[in-house]
């Protein structure tokens, strides 16, 4: 599960980075307000093409002896978009296993995260 989430997160981070770089490009010919050459969006799309819409096979083949039905999972959302995304991605598999998930929004500062760990 971690392997798939990491690959998915890596692909998403790549797409976000490339789109951010593409947004920094300029269609203006003026060199006075340009910080560099325009982004090559075609090259960016070609670079991420192998990762888009082509999930890898799940590496674990051993079935669970028993589903963890009824178990509760607490997810600590650190307040960044990637933490929110990981939380959203985790909900479906937990539901498929019969588990319930509670998300605790911890905030962005260290002094807000520690008390939220205690609440879990």
Characterise this structure.
This protein has 120 residues and is mostly helical. It folds into two domains: 1-62, no CATH class; 65-120, no CATH class. It is 47% helix and 10% strand. The protein is built from four helices and two strands. The chain has a two-stranded parallel sheet with strand order 1-2. β1, α3 (81-96) and β2 form a beta-alpha-beta unit. α1 (2-23) runs antiparallel to α2. The longest helix has 22 residues, at 2-23. It is flat, with a radius of gyration of 20 Å. The model has no long low-confidence stretch (mean pLDDT 78).
The radius of gyration computed from the alpha-carbon positions, rounded to a whole number of angstroms, is 20 Å
Question: Fraction of residues in helices?
Answer: 40-55%
Order of helices and strands: HHEHEH
Largest sheet geometry: 2 strands, parallel
Name its key features:
120 residues; mainly alpha; two-stranded parallel sheet; 4 helices; 2 strands; flat
Outline the fold blueprint.
Elements: H1 2-23, H2 41-48, E1 72-77, H3 81-96, E2 100-105, H4 110-119
Parallel strand pairs: 1-2
């Amino acid at each position: 599960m971690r392997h798939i989430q990491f690959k998915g997160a890596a692909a998403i981070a790549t797409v976000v980075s490339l789109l951010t770089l593409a947004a920094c490009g300029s269609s203006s010919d003026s060199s006075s307000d340009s910080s560099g050459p325009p982004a090559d969006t075609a090259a960016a799309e070609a670079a991420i093409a192998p990762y888009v819409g082509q999930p890898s096979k799940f590496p674990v083949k051993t079935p669970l002896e028993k589903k963890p039905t009824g178990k509760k999972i607490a997810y600590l959302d650190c307040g960044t978009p990637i933490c929110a995304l990981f939380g959203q991605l985790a909900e479906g598999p937990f539901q498929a296993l019969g588990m319930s998930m509670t998300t605790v929004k911890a905030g962005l500062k260290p002094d807000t995260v520690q008390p939220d760990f205690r609440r879990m």
